[in-house]
Amino acid sequence: MKTLSLKSLSKTYFDLYAGSHHTALHDISLDVPAGEFVAIVGPSGCGKSTILNMVAGFIAPSGGEILVGGEPVRGPGADRGVVFQSFALFPWKTVLENVGFGPKMRGVPKAERDEIARDYLGLVGLAHAADRYPNELSGGMQQRVGVVRALANEPDILLMDEPFASVDAQTRMTLQEELTRIWEDRRPTVVFITHDVPEAVFLANRVVVLSKGRILEQVEVPLARPRVWDRLVEDDAFKSLSNKVLALVRAA
Amino acid sequence: MGAGNRLAGALTFVMPLAALVLIWAVVVPAFQVRPQIFPSVAAVIGAGLAGLRDGSLLTHAATSLARVAIGTVLAVLVAVPLGILMGISRGLSAFLTPLLRFFSVLAGIAWIPIATLWFGYGFGAIVFVIFNAVFFVVVYNTLLGVSTIPMPLRHAAASLGAGRRAMLSDVLLPGALPNIVTGIRTGLGFAWRGLIAAEMIATNVGLGYMLFVARDFYQTEVIVLGMIVIGALWLSIDRLLLAPLERATIERWGLVRA
Ligand SMILES: Nc1ncnc2c1ncn2[C@@H]1O[C@H](COP(=O)(O)OP(=O)(O)OP(=O)(O)O)[C@@H](O)[C@H]1O
Ligand SMILES: [Mg+2]
Predict the structure, then answer these.
(1) What sign does the dihedral A211-A213-A215-A216 (CA atoms) show?
(2) What is the pLDDT of residues B153-184, one digit of tens each?
(3) Yes or no, beta carbons of A77 and B254 under 8 Å apart
(4) A88 touches chain B (CB under 8 A)
(5) B57-252 under CATH 1.10.10.10, yes or no
(6) d(Cα B192, Cα B126) in Å, to the nearest integer?
(7) What whole-number distance in Å separates Cα of residue B123 and Cα of residue B112?
(8) Which of A26, A135, A177, B174: CA 20 to 30 A from B71?
């Protein structure tokens, strides 16, 4: 696990339609210690995905620096696993091959990476679906595969951009519980983007509220773990933290 | 698709063809059509049997098929890498697209005259014509296929540690495959037509040639036989080779594109 630090990060896009520059992020500085679970919330368009895409190495910052374990980011890399809102599973690979793709890229022999992939699929109750193709799975199942595909590569940092936004509410809660359980077990550094405030509070150790491309406030979440919805929905500390963050987001 | 369904599918496909043969069998004797105008069913069957017996029909068909196969394979081998390169390089794609558009209009028989000047009459000229018919369509479809691969898939692969080679073999190639297959299917259709035309002009063996010389001797039964073989061969290639290829892979991936 590695630390992640953003140093005075900024991003200016050139808007083709308006023909002008638009600054999506101003001077973002953030330190995420190794093994911490940070959620970033904020209204639509405040720059959440922009931060994540820069950390993932998909787009370059306009200013500032991103350090992973002290090293500057220069593009996508296996040290940063990404879980996409659109799942982004390879349709031409079976579930097992999808999950084994990271290990395959590392040169792990077939038998061994199949075993790794099966273990990870077992973690989310999908061992039985190993030989199916992604389009034969439900959305919730596909996203479970997306999560374990990133995990199976043992990244130092796990980046997730609204990964549960496109599944139904019931499935979303199950996925959230599975994710906290896995996180407690393996303690990866996680940056989780969402605009669902209860989701952020439920999952994270710290919630960063973003507003118009700046960090508005950071809220620590000292709730005990393991966290399960049955208990937290009634929990006063959870409720007041959620309300606090919600008020910040609405003011944002 | 179950076996029953497939049988029903085959039947609905064959029935109209059978009906056409039936009409032919009735009309030609009923109106006493002269054999120089149109042959009887029996004459064509006779010509077919004769052609099989002396081996000439097989030679013509095999030669034509071999030309198409070689021209197509060569075209695909060059077109797919070029299409993928264009798919990942904006500059290359911008530069080559107008050329591609221009030449795809010309693809096929327009090349026959110059091909015979370059390669002489025979194998080279005909394979060249087929290469042209297939090449441009496959390049274009490969390019289309690569550019329709969703960006998150490429990002996902990169984040899982894929380098250039793995990106090519595990993402770009399979991602573009549905379009590549469509391109090959379309290109082969062009190629098959181009082949017949080219063989009428530029060779002394092959199905097109067989048709063309038969005309000089008023052998309508050989002409019609040739036409039937040409059509039937194409339908078999398309239905028995290309369509199952699509079904076996692409449909299961959920990638079928209209
Ligand atoms: N490629 C781009 N070109 C120009 N402007 C962009 C581009 N990508 C994002 N933007 C702009 O940057 C700002 C931040 O976008 P971003 O996608 O990071 O927001 P977000 O917080 O993830 O929003 P959402 O919650 O809707 O996903 C927006 O104003 C958006 O219009
Ligand atoms: Mg976003």
Answers:
(1) negative
(2) 999 999 999 999 999 999 999 999 988 988 99
(3) no
(4) yes
(5) no
(6) 11
(7) 12
(8) B174
